[in-house]
Design goal:
Length: 414
């Protein structure tokens, strides 16, 4: 989940042994090898360089950098406050760490991230995410586990949702997604996994403390929903790093089979096709043009309403900048986004983006009731960690029917 929180700086770096990276606002995919000095711009700066400029002499700064380069574990804990359309104001404490299971550039960095957050709208958010690369990247193990106590707004399905007023529902949600993939060719992986999702205590809310009186919801929702089953996944990844890459291609196809044989409520299958492509533009600034296609579709059966493809309900809550999470929903979702990332300062400490996206939803399993919704916006980037390429991303997005809002990530949306 990346987009929900913003670490106000306030830069609390509560540093533990051998850390250099900072905590994330929501878990972000961090398995990335550090770039070599030849690949990274020698003039590049981040917030820790600015901080150290005032704290240390030049000799001490060089000694500090030399020591950090030899640490096996980089770990940090960061408290902060944040804001999003979905959560309102939020306070959190986040922690993350990166490490390698073997020395050398042939093994990607492994990572773990966690967060405990409470929000203005009485939400509780607790994820724990791991990404482990074994020596020489032979296996890639991912574990995505989250608990949400989540009062949320929803708008229904199909054409009616375009002008529908917000309805409010409460639910508890437990997510446990585990996969293991093995390398079969350079940059090419195949694997299997197990996905478990449970929603319970689902109920409509007639009045919310901070959002007034929402409209009655026109769908009858089951009070509980459980999905359990196996997944198969194939992926190709030529990006030199996974955070804020400047070039390369990522493509993956995931098929999920939910079945009562493994404890699920009903039999249904979904698929997810994702493609991300990055181009380094000519010139000294090395600006980047990035594209993201996220296509989430129902193959057969009828998933519960809360498990249907929806705006901002990808694994890291990043689709659909310009709209609140859950604004649109359907049996199939096809999503495309483009972003121009450019430097404002030569050092890369400050940058900017221009972005646009479009969502296409098919509202029912009969492939009828289709909607297309565009959005766009602009944003500011502040370099938080030059070694991993992590930016603080502050975006303002605009959608149709007056939808707009602030979207803040620790890390890029894709």
């Amino acid at each position: 989940m990346t987009r929900i929180f913003f670490c106000l700086f306030f830069l609390f770096w509560v540093q533990a042994k051998g850390q250099e990276s900072i905590g994330m606002a929501e878990p972000i995919p961090v398995p990335t090898p550090l770039e070599t000095e030849e690949e990274r711009d020698s003039l590049e700066k981040d917030l820790s360089d600015v901080w150290n400029l005032f704290r240390f002499s030049q000799r001490n700064r060089l000694n500090k950098d030399s020591i950090l380069q030899h640490k096996k574990l980089h770990f940090a804990i960061v408290p902060g406050i944040g804001y999003s359309l979905q959560t309102g104001l939020a306070s959190f404490i986040a922690g993350n760490g990166v490490f390698k299971t073997a020395k050398g550039a042939s093994t990607n960095q492994s990572s773990f991230q966690t967060l405990v957050a409470v929000t203005q709208y009485k939400q509780l958010i607790f994820p724990f995410v791991m990404s482990i690369w074994t020596p020489k990247n032979r296996f890639h193990i991912t574990s995505d586990n989250r608990f949400l106590k989540y009062p949320s707004l929803t708008f229904g399905i199909g054409q009616k949702s375009l002008d529908a007023p917000a309805s409010a529902i409460n639910f508890l949600y437990l997510k446990m997604h585990q996969t293991i993939m093995t390398k079969v060719l350079p940059n090419f992986y195949v694997g299997l996994g197990y996905y478990f999702d449970r929603f319970w205590k689902i109920r409509e809310v007639e009045r919310t403390l901070h959002r007034g009186t929402p409209a009655p919801f026109d769908l009858e929702l089951d009070r509980e929903a459980l999905a359990s089953g196996l997944v198969a996944k194939v992926s190709y990844d030529s990006r030199p790093r996974l955070i804020n890459p400047a070039k390369g291609l990522y493509a993956s196809l995931l098929l999920r089979d939910n079945t009562p044989l493994m404890g699920g409520d009903s039999r249904w299958r979904t698929g997810l096709l994702e493609i991300r492509k990055f181009f380094t533009l000519p010139g000294r600034a090395k600006n980047v043009l990035a594209f993201w296609s996220h296509n989430w579709f129902t193959l057969n059966g009828n998933p519960h309403y809360l498990m249907l493809p929806s705006t901002g309900w990808d694994d890291f809550f990043n689709t659909g900048r310009g709209y609140i999470q859950g604004r649109f929903r359907g049996s199939d979702m096809f999503y495309f986004e483009g972003e121009f990332r450019y430097k404002i300062l030569r050092s890369g400490l400050l940058g900017g983006v221009l972005f646009s996206n479009v969502q296409y939803f098919i509202g029912s399993p009969l492939r009828s009731d289709q909607i297309v919704v565009p959005a766009g916006g602009l944003g500011l980037r502040i370099k938080v960690n030059k070694n991993s390429g992590t930016n603080l991303a502050i975006d303002y997005g605009f959608g149709i029917n007056g939808s707009r809002g602030l979207f803040i990530n620790l890390g890029e949306s894709f």
